[in-house]
Amino acid sequence: MDPVLNPYAPGAGQRPPELAGRDSELIAFDVVLERIIKGRSARSLVLTGLRGVGKTVLLNALRSAAVRAGWGTGKLEAKPDQPLRRPLSAALHVAIRELGGAHPEDTAQVLGVLKSFAQKEAPTAKLRDRWQPGIGVPAVSGRADSGDIEIDLVELFSDVGGLAADTGRGIAVFLDEMQDLAPDDVSALCAACHELSQNGLPLVVVGAGLPHLPALLSASKSYSERLFRYARIDRLDRTAADRALQSPAQDEDAEFTPEALEAMYRVTAGYPYFIQAYGKAVWDIAPCSPITADDVAMAAPEAELAVGFFGSRFERATPAEREYLHAMAAAAMPPAEPTPDSGCGPVAEPESVPTAVVAEHLGRKPQSLSPARDALLKKGLIYSGERGRIAFTVPHFGRYLRSQGAEL
To answer: Which residue stretches, if any, does this entry annotate as coiled coil (predicted)?
Structure first.
């Protein structure tokens, strides 16, 4: 097969050629946009799921839907140890510019408030870290500049939402890696969204993060369970997975045999990133169309996955953290894993394992492992959805670690 024509795209956040299995989320968001413009109530949205299930891709698709509806949009990615104020200001600046409108004086007023909000850096911020936003209007004092992020964000969202209402359109803020927000920023964001919902203003927040994100929001504000609509983004079913493979191939006058599709689902388990990675590897090795089960077996895409998806993450861990990851993998091992040629379907690992069991595998007390566990949580390699239990943020990570064994 011609590698130049390879249609598959296993990149981080890169939209696949066929966005299969996400129609219900796209349709539901279109309804949200229409309801808000008509003055009807609609909750902000939070997408959750493991890495590699396509949260960022879906977030970008939802943003495109908002743009098509004439909304102003802005996107940011939360990062550990980075305050929300600066990246949110940049995202809202873009959204207000996209919104436009026939109210230049009101727009200038809101941009002045945004500039004031952006420049209210923490007193301890170093000079080189201070940001001068490219907003060509004077800062407006006395609004969104108290220095308290919760007070300021409530006031800012109210003003931005009011501007959007005056133009008869809306503003949508898309926030990726939402679980990396600092606790004060999470609390402020929840409070601001609560104010928006009470006043019916046309500003919506769409967040995406790891599976424990709802627990973080709930711990910050108890009403967050009613404030957001949560959508769990998971692996694709067999029909959607086949479509994700077949449609791009057919666009290049190629196809998969039924046996090849069955083999692909067996090795990918329906995870969108794996579908793209295995699809790319199989296309490059297959001599011609149709792509067969033998081609799937020969592609051996684990090497690509080890470097691009598993290995790069594992390299970020220290020796002590790697030891902890291996113990997690051992604790999460299913009763019987299939061999590559056994013909068995995907083996589901437990969603989480007790920290006490991990400690037992290492012959250590759970308290002594807290530094390694906390570091892995901060690096985003594992997460804790409930007290006393942990899980990998990457699907099949446990299987990968067990397959590598002592080599790592």
So the answer is: none
pLDDT tens-digit readout, 299-355: 865 646 655 678 778 888 999 999 999 999 998 876 555 544 444 444 555 578 999
Q: What is the pLDDT of residue 109?
A: 94
CB atoms within 10 A of CB 387: 7
Give 3-state DSSP helix, strand, coil % of the chain, rounded to 5. 55, 10, 35
HSE-up of 274 (CA within 13 Å, CB side)?
Answer: 28
pTM of the model: 0.88
What is the band of 180 on the pLDDT scale with cuts at 50, 70, 90? Answer: very high
What is the bridge-based pairing of β-strands 228-232 and 44-48? parallel
pLDDT at 125: 52
Q: 26-36 burial, b for 16+ CB within 10 Å, e for fewer?
A: eeebeebbeeb
Q: 1.10.443.10, 1.10.10.10, 1.10.1270.20, 3.40.50.11540: which CATH number matches 316-407?
A: 1.10.10.10
- Cβ count within 10 A of residue 341: 7
Give the containing element (helix H, strand E) for 230: strand 228-232
CA gyration radius for the chain? 23
CATH for the stretch 23-232: 3.40.50
| The predicted structure's pLDDT at residue 344 | 45
At what angle are helices 319-331 and 397-404 packed, to 10 degrees? 110
Residue 240 has pLDDT above 80, yes or no: yes
